[in-house]
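Record 1 of the preview.
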Amino acid sequence: MPKLPRTDPNRHAYSRLASLRETLSGQGFETRLEIASLIVIDKPDGGPCLADTITCREREDDEGRLWFYTSWGDPVAEVDRVTDAAVIIAGNLQPKR
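->
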């Protein structure tokens, strides 16, 4: 895993992405944690490979609280709601039928 300096302002966001990574990895998703993002990959047997890049940043319309966001810029969940975020991300990565 990449090492962040103790004074880096993204340190809190990185730790939240690491928590989300643990949850999604436990659900069978392939994950790649980078300094400012988490790549989540679903490789279903025989189906298309789907992926999303999750970031963590302040949400202006929620008093600046940290939220997870999809690569499309859609808010997923507040960073304290890791389980909720994992459920939403997993749902987004399900093949549409």
